[in-house]
Design a protein that fits this description.
By secondary structure, this protein is mainly alpha-helical. The protein is built from eleven helices and five strands. It is 56% helix and 7% strand.
Length: 268
């Protein structure tokens, strides 16, 4: 029996391995993206209804979040349109950008382009270009299917049968996995080394999308320096954290800078 299970597991992994069209990395993906996007809509609306959303009409910060988010989304749409192999991936995206009143220093993007920025992040971003760096990073997590990848790894580890009606058949377990990966309260990744790999991918392509949207990618380094200063000594060592250390992240960002600058044309 153990041998049969092992064979089934190996076959599942082989079948589910796909090459991501943006990052060109092989990924283990079990879930249809449409399934995660449907669940994301529900979770996103629930979150907004339970938190204080800043009205964009007349509020400069909320207007800025929507403006920067829309420019990043437009740049990504253009990038995808010029790459036929990936152009279909964004057809089901319905972008939303909301600013939520919270002291938390955070932002996130769910599958399908559901984005939230917390007001606590803005004193550290300080300008639109730095906010664009953050949004490019978070949106890359979504379009690179990082959440799907992590959910698939957890589902395989727990031996769950995955199908289009996964959230109906396995409601409690499915929601638990989804929330551990996508919920705003989620803090620690399930598989830490992979999470750091995903972080570097999000930094890399997020920086490119930031530049494509007409924002200066050089703002990424001082932003992460401010983030590091704000966190102080409260961060765990890198081997325990889902995110790379600030020093390593900044070093990697600097290595991506020439490529990002090749896409950068300031908006006049």
């Amino acid at each position: 029996m153990k041998k049969i299970i092992a064979v089934i597991t190996v076959v599942s992994i082989v079948i589910a391995c796909t090459r991501n069209a943006v990052t060109n990395r092989q990924q283990f993906i079990l879930f249809p993206e449409s399934t995660l996007q449907q669940e994301a809509v529900s979770q996103y609306q629930s979150f907004l209804s339970q938190n204080k959303v800043v009205n964009a009409n007349g509020n400069k910060d909320a207007e800025m979040v929507k403006r920067v988010g829309s420019r990043i989304a437009a740049a990504i749409n253009t990038y995808y349109a010029n790459n036929p192999s990936v152009s279909a991936d964004l057809k089901t995206y319905k972008w939303e950008f909301n600013l939520v009143d919270s002291k938390e220093v955070n932002a996130w993007c769910m599958p399908g382009g559901k984005v939230v920025v917390y007001t606590g992040l803005l004193p550290i971003t300080q300008n639109e270009a730095a906010l664009a760096v953050v949004l490019g990073h978070e949106i890359t997590h979504a379009i690179a299917h990082h959440g799907n990848e992590r959910m698939s790894q957890v589902a395989l580890a727990q031996g769950l049968q995955v199908a289009g009606d996964f959230f109906t058949k396995n409601k409690q377990q499915a929601n638990s996995i989804f929330n551990n990966v996508f919920a705003p309260a989620a803090q620690v990744g399930v598989l830490l080394p992979n999470s750091r790999k995903q972080e570097y991918e999000a930094d890399h392509y997020g920086l490119l999308f930031c530049a494509m949207a007409g924002y200066n990618p050089r703002e990424a380094v001082p932003f992460w320096q401010r983030m590091s200063a704000a966190a102080g000594s409260n961060k765990p060592p890198e081997f325990l954290a889902t995110h790379p250390s600030d020093e390593n992240r900044i070093q990697q960002l600097e290595s991506y800078m020439d490529e990002a600058l090749s896409y950068y044309q300031p908006v006049k």
